[in-house]
Amino acid sequence: MQDLSFEESLEKLEEIVNKLENGDVPLDDAIEEFKNAMDLVKICNDKLNAAEESIAKIVEDNGKLIEFNSNE
Asked: For residue 51, what pLDDT is reported?
């Protein structure tokens, strides 16, 4: 599951959420689906963090790297 793209992970997460919202899932299956959803959330979060780190440094006109803080 780790080799899924962000978009694929998000799509699978949405499918699980829809399935669980319907309420037709037996408890044991719902627990397994919830575990899978949490794994997908972690994958999405890791990919978002990696993307943030990749764009965290912005090149100024003189080529000097500066830190970019998205919390500003």
From this structure: 85
- Read off the pTM: 0.72
- Which structure tokens are listed for 44? 């999405």
Task: Report the alpha-carbon distance of residue 36 to residue 38 in Å, rounded.
Answer: 5
Residue-wise burial string across 11-20, b where 16 or more C-beta atoms lie within 10 A, e elsewhere:
ebbeebeeee
In angstroms, the CA 20 to CA 40 distance is 15
CB 20 within 8 A of CB 34: yes
d(CA 12, CA 56): 28
